[in-house]
Amino acid sequence: MKTYTKLISLALVALVQMPLASAATFPGSDIVNITTFLSDDTYFNGYTELNAIDFSGEWQYTAIAHESGNLNTVSMTTGIPNSTTFATNYYNNFGEWKDIDFSSEKLFFEDSNGPYNVELDPFSTANDSFFRVFQLTADSNSLSYLGSNSLTLALGTIIVGFNDNGLGLGDADYDDIIVALQPISPVPLPASIWLFGTALLGFAGLVRKRKANRKV
Questions:
Q1: Which of 69-73, 117-121, 129-133 has the lowest mean pLDDT?
Q2: Could you tell me if residue 201 is inside a domain?
Q3: Residue 89 located in a structural domain
Q4: Per-residue pLDDT at 31
Q5: What is the extent of the structural domain holding 132?
Q6: Residues 6+ apart with CB under 8 A from 25
Q7: 11, part of any domain
Q8: How many domains does the chain have?
Q9: How would DSSP label each residue in the chain?
Q10: How many angstroms separate the CA atoms of 111 and 95, rounded?
Q11: In terms of Cα–Cα distance, which of 74, 67, 69 is closest to 34?
Q12: Is residue 203 included in any domain, yes or no?
């Protein structure tokens, strides 16, 4: 009995001495500010800041990081979260792309304590204190901290950092929730299709020329 008691005591001591997991287990939440995040060469290889951008047409977007302790959301709807929503209290879908057509739809950012329904488009530093917008000047490395949703962001990807209280009241870190956006381009036709089309045009021209010669 003494042996069992001693073993149990040792196990309890080992359990107490075992380091506890940090509550902030998501690496994308430990951020100083948006530029510090983008300057981390573990993940990024260059960026430039934009003063204005008009998000027109079809894009895809995904949340990639957050710092806010408050509940911040990004969504195509206001109010109750749905399938288009990314939220800082549930980041299992960070890294999943959602489609949006800015011609007919809107993207809203908000803090649960306000401000609410801050619309992204159109963005200009002259009229919006809630966002800083950047463009990647090189492909990123893998954002491996996203786990099963890890992804690599292509050259030209737009990065939007949200400051949840605006410039006047906030801390100006613009990292309360960070979103990546990429335009959805039409699928390019294979080169063989263009060559085939060119050949057809050339053949049609040759046939017309022969017919014209016969008439002469």
A1: 69-73
A2: no
A3: yes
A4: 85
A5: 27-183
A6: none
A7: no
A8: 1
A9: -HHHHHHHHHHHHHHHHSPPPPS---GGG--S-HHHHHT-TTT---EEEESEE---SEEEEEEEEE--SS-EEEESSSSS--TT-EETTB-TTTT--EEEETTT---EEEETTS---EE-SSEETTT-SSEEEEEESS-----GGGGGG---PPTT-EEEEE-TTHHHHS-S---SEEEEEEE-PPPPPPHHHHHHHHHHHHHHHHHHHHHHHHH-
A10: 20
A11: 67
A12: no
- Comparing CA positions, the residue from 207, 58, 35 lying closest to residue 133 is 35
Has residue 5 got a pLDDT over 50? no
Average of pLDDT values for 129-137? Answer: 95
Query: Per residue in 140-197, pLDDT tens?
Result: 999 999 999 999 999 999 999 999 876 666 678 999 999 999 999 754 444 444 444 5
pTM of the model: 0.74
Say how many C-beta atoms besides its own lie within 10 A of residue 201's C-beta. Answer: 10
CA distance 18 to 27: 21
